[in-house]
Write a structure and sequence with these properties.
By secondary structure, the chain is α/β, with parallel strands linked by helices. 44% of the residues lie in helices and 14% in strands. The chain has four domains: 127 residues, Rossmann fold, CATH 3.40.50.2300; 153 residues, P-loop containing nucleotide triphosphate hydrolases (Rossmann fold, 3-Layer(aba) Sandwich); 75 residues, Helicase, Ruva Protein, domain 3 (Orthogonal Bundle), CATH 1.10.8; 80 residues, Orthogonal Bundle (Arc Repressor Mutant, subunit A). The strands form six sheets. Strands 2-1-3-4-5 form a five-stranded parallel sheet, sandwiched between helices.
Length: 494
């Protein structure tokens, strides 16, 4: 559906020219010649942006902007004037104008302003939707998100929780594997029993057996009394073996025996005792590769890998990053006593563009920093750690020294657009945000530009998908809203 823009201009010729320009860029524009007519139009229909002249008979553009902000606070207003003064610009900003442009208006100037206003509006609406989603009842405590990837995790948790099957949770560090294990425990019949967690990589190898299976008095120098291990402490609950891929080979043999026989023997003891705890394991390693390398037992792998749940990285979860951010902000602010309630639109855009290599753990750490630094009720870009502010989301590497091997600018732009789209999992809305263009511009580029492979196959006809070759091998590429065709990197501004 075409985005709708209301054009308010007392000079009919100027208004119609502006409407024609917007129509060329696939927007649906309605022209009215007064602020009063604009208010009437807004009361009868929905508009995504208002573009208004400042100097008009009756209500002027600044007064119109004030009225729009009161009645339709989510609709961005762009004001234009041919008699710009500092006082007028200040008045426009105080009235809540999104942008202020000076006549004569260039097409590039208008499309940049409109594109940014729409992007701002869309991110703002997404934040509002996510706040509502966060306030709604979540199906599983501790698992936050509504992306397809996290919904699949929730579905798996609910399906396996009632059983006693051993589960293996895989995923990068910081993706919330322990939270998933706790969810399996809480959603099953063992919820009232203990949940006991141990990081197999954090316990020295010579102590791990005693930690898991316990020891008897006199088993070693400091064993002054009997001590039950974690398997016994878990009782009828759940024991979570985190980072099982780091378990030494000799302990893997002993753990395999415990899982097969459901009995443990404390260090230094002669008697075995039965165990009944459910076992859930997790790893950030590729255990099949570890088996091939001789570092993990294949028989233990098949014993623990009855059911597998993949914890998705944060970069593949789309808007979940904002939902998680608001959850952490609420929790951190409540703990610290600060009146921070959410993210600014610019900070939200940075969060959407950043790759989050440390996943949810890095996000939480970032927000601990941001809430501590914040002086306002919203997190702004200045509150974020430097590496988030300075992050470059994309890097173009140009290879080859032979001019015949190099791409034209149009081809480079084409490859970059398709690379961003692929990185966003085909999500065009998110891809447009990363590229710094509006969604309409992205659709147009995708329609106008074939893939690099298609260009290569048809490259001898003298044309490139979104530009035209010249005799000296240069090319021209269309850019929407004045956006450069390709930048070495995209600096976050969401």
């Amino acid at each position: 559906m075409a985005l709708q823009i209301l054009v308010v201009e007392d000079e009919k010729d100027e208004g119609e020219v502006l409407c024609d320009l917007l129509a060329e860029h696939k927007y649906k524009a309605l022209y009215v010649d007064s602020a009063e007519a604009a208010l009437a139009a807004l009361s009868e229909g929905h508009f995504d942006v208002v573009i208004s002249d400042v100097n008009m008979p009756g209500l002027n553009g600044i007064q119109l902007c004030e009225r729009v902000r009161q009645v339709h606070p989510d609709v961005p207003v762009i004001l234009s004037t041919g008699a710009a003064t500092v006082a007028t610009a200040v008045a426009a900003l105080r009235a809540g104008a999104w942008d202020f442009i000076i006549k004569p208006i260039s097409s590039q100037m208008v499309m940049v302003a409109v594109g940014r206003a729409i992007e701002h509006h869309q991110v703002k609406m997404e934040l509002r939707r996510l706040r509502a989603a966060l306030a709604a009842t979540r199906p599983i405590e501790g698992i936050i998100g509504d992306s397809p990837a996290i919904k699949e995790v929730v579905d798996m948790v609910l399906r396996i929780a009632p059983s006693d099957a051993t589960a293996l949770i895989t995923g990068e560090s910081g993706t919330g594997k322990e939270l998933i294990a706790m969810a399996i425990h809480r959603e099953g019949p063992r919820a009232s029993e203990p949940f006991v967690a141990v990081n197999c990589g954090a316990v020295p190898s010579h102590l791990l057996e005693s930690e898991l299976f316990g020891h008897v008095k006199g088993a070693f120098t400091d064993a002054r009394r009997d001590r039950p291990g974690l398997f016994v402490q878990a009782g009828n609950g759940t024991i979570f073996l985190d980072e099982i891929g780091e378990m030494p080979m000799d302990m893997q043999v002993k753990l395999l025996r415990v899982l097969q026989e459901r009995k443990i023997r404390p260090v230094g003891g002669d008697e075995e005792r039965p165990i009944s705890a459910r076992v859930v394991c997790a790893t950030n390693r590729d255990l099949e590769s570890e088996i091939d390398a001789g570092r993990f037992r294949h028989d233990l792998y098949y014993r623990i890998n009855v059911v597998t749940i993949d914890a998705p990285p944060l970069r593949s979860r789309g808007g979940d990053v904002l939902l998680l951010a608001m959850h952490f902000i609420q929790r951190i602010a409540a703990r610290s006593g600060k009146q921070v309630t959410g993210l600014s639109v610019d900070a939200a855009r940075m969060f959407l563009e950043y790759d989050w290599p440390g996943n949810v753990r890095e996000l939480e750490n970032c927000l601990e920093h941001a809430v501590a630094m914040s002086r306002h009720n919203e997190i702004t870009p200045n509150d974020l750690p430097a590496k988030i502010r300075e992050h470059r989301t994309s890097r173009i590497v140009i290879e080859g020294n032979d001019p015949d091997e190099l791409m034209t600018l149009a081809q480079l732009e084409n490859r970059y657009v398709h690379r961003v789209l692929a990185a966003c999992g085909g999500n065009k809305t998110r891809a447009a945000k990363v590229l710094g263009i509006d969604r309409r511009s992205l659709y147009r580029r995708l329609e106008e530009t074939p893939t690099i492979e298609a260009q290569a196959n048809g490259g001898n006809n003298g044309s490139t998908g979104n530009g035209s070759s010249t005799g000296n091998g240069s090319s021209t590429a269309s850019t929407a809203g004045g956006t450069p065709p390709v930048s070495e990197s995209s600096a976050p501004s969401s």
